[in-house]
Amino acid sequence: MPDSSVPAVEVKALSKSFGSLRVLNDVNVTVPSGTTLCILGPSGSGKSTLLRCINLLETPDAGEVYLRGQRIGFADGVRQKEAQLWSTRARMGMVFQHFNLWPHLTVLGNVIESPMHVLRRSREESIAKAKALLEKVGVADKVQQFPHTLSGGQKQRVAIARALAMEPEVLLFDEPTSALDPEIVGEVLGVMRQLVREGMTMIVVTHEMAFAHEAADAIVFMDGGVVVETGPPDEFFTRPKTERARLFLQRYMR
Amino acid sequence: MHDIRIVLEHYTDFLAGLENTLWLSAATLLLASVLGCIFAGLLLSPIAVVKRCTAILVDGLRCIPFLLLVYLIYYGLPQVGLRFDRWSAGLGALVLYHSAYIGEIVRGAWTNLSKDQIEAGRAFGFRGFLLFRRIVLPQLFFASAPLVGNQAIYIMKDTAFLEIITVPELTFAAASIQSTYFVPFASFLAAVLLYWIVTILIEQGVLRIERAADLRRA
User: Fold this and answer.
1) What is the domain count for chain A?
2) B170: buried, middle or exposed (CB in 10 Å: 19+, 13-18, 0-12)?
3) Which residues have CB under 8 Å from A4's CB, separation 6+?
4) C-alpha dist (Å) from residue A22 to A44, A182, B166
5) B-chain residue closest to A86, CA distance
6) B125 — contact with chain A (CB < 8 Å)?
7) Does the pTM exceed 0.90?
8) Nearest CA-CA distance, residue A152 and chain B, Å
9) Among A77, A102, B155, B198, which residue is least crowded by beta carbons within 10 Å?
10) Does residue A162 belong to any structural domain of this protein?
11) pLDDT tens across B78-117, in order?
12) Domain spans of chain B, in order of start
């Protein structure tokens, strides 16, 4: 068991601009091991960029990111090159809004691809694990199908299995239900709730307020690239401290 | 009937010609695919001058009749001291000419490739050549294979032009039989039928690739 006193993920004074647009401004976030953090906020508030800075798909302009107490993106104080970041990225699972499954591989192929070729696990081990994961997310009957034949909800559950197959230290979700029809959002959230119960460390960017309220251990509310408010979900949803959070909740909680 | 009998009596000549046509086509398809991928990479180069020069070369090749390219290589280049035998000149012309077309096909497929799935690859720890080999290349293959398969038919038909530089392929074989025995109709018809059969076989292969690609569409 990892030392639980060290946070799984810690973000310190992170800033990021795209041209003259400041997308993140002095963002600080701490995610203890085994907890779920939901990041809420209006569109364009920098939520997704924060998530993408954590697994280094975007390079922050300033600030530090720690994974289990270890500063990432840097080795011996020197910023790592793109080619050296892979082993850090492999420690984090990512689930995308548009699933981003690999269309040329079957469902099973998608799930075993990274364990086999990035982690260099054996094919047998990868397949056994993948089948168990696909069973867990409820798409065990689709293993030999190609992604385009699946529904959105099935695709996203396969994407979650693909991320879990890497045995990640933290799972990052970038609006995992925003591209889904309302009636199938529930099947994806169901899988995510199960992961919460199992003590997975998760950072979830979402607009699903009910899910955030009931499943998160902490809420970070962002607006305009800054963390406006942070706290336990009960407090955030019942007694928001800031006017901006109140307005946001009024708009989303109808 | 007499004409047909002459053609049938010389069927080994036709088969020898067909054999050369087939291996020339296959070698061209393979080599032009490799060179085409390189052209595609250069066409998408971030370096403007590389991109520009490759575009001029590729467009230039596609704008000239294939026969003229063969003339230029086989009869023209010896004047500047570059002499090739008929096989090298023929195969070289085929590869160069068709790699320009395949280069454009692959470039189009590459441009249309979803950036999201490549980013997913990076997010899962794929990098550099591993990312290209496991995530980019297979998608590139399935996106361009149906069009490259059609190109294979053009390649096969263009091998017939090599008759004029005396490469003994199928059309050359048919021409020699007809001129020796004066049986033009039967002789050329036999060649037509053989080209036709090969084209049908290629089309069947393309159809299979199309089905496989359709299953793997994004």
Assistant:
1) 1
2) buried
3) A32, A33, A34
4) 11, 33, 69
5) B125
6) yes
7) no
8) 13
9) A77
10) yes
11) 999 999 999 999 999 999 999 999 999 999 999 999 899 9
12) 2-215
Tell how strand A218-223 and strand A36-40 pair up: parallel
Is residue A2 over pLDDT 60? no
Contact A100 B135 (CB under 8 A): no
- Alpha carbons B194 and B172: distance in angstroms, whole number: 13
Residue A38: beta bridge partners? A204, A219
Q: Alpha-carbon distance A195 to A67, whole Å?
A: 20
Listed range (A77-86, A104-113, A190-199, B115-124) with the worst mean pLDDT: A77-86
- Which residue is associated with the tokens 């960017």? A205
- Interface membership of B217 toward A (CB under 8 Å): yes
Cβ separation B120–A117 shorter than 8 A: no
Indicate whether A125 belongs to any domain. yes
Q: What is the pLDDT of residues B177-212, one digit of tens each?
A: 998 989 899 999 999 999 999 999 999 999 999 999
Q: How far is CA B101 from CA A120, B61, B202, in A?
A: 38, 9, 18
Instruction: Give the DSSP per-residue string, B41-71.
Output: HHHT-SSHHHHHHHHHHHHHHHHS-HHHHHH
Residue range(s) defining the domain that contains residue A142: 101-168
Distance CA A125, CA A116 (A): 9
CATH architecture under which domain B2-215 falls? Orthogonal Bundle (1.10)
Amino acid at B168: P
ipTM (interface pTM): 0.90
Tens of pLDDT along B43-67?
999 999 999 999 999 999 999 999 9
Output the six-digit token pair for B26. 């296959």
Q: How many angstroms separate the CA atoms of A37 and A216, rounded? A: 6
Q: Do residues B159 and B91 lie in contact, with contact meaning Cβ atoms separated by under 8 Å?
A: no
Residue A53 lies in a domain: no
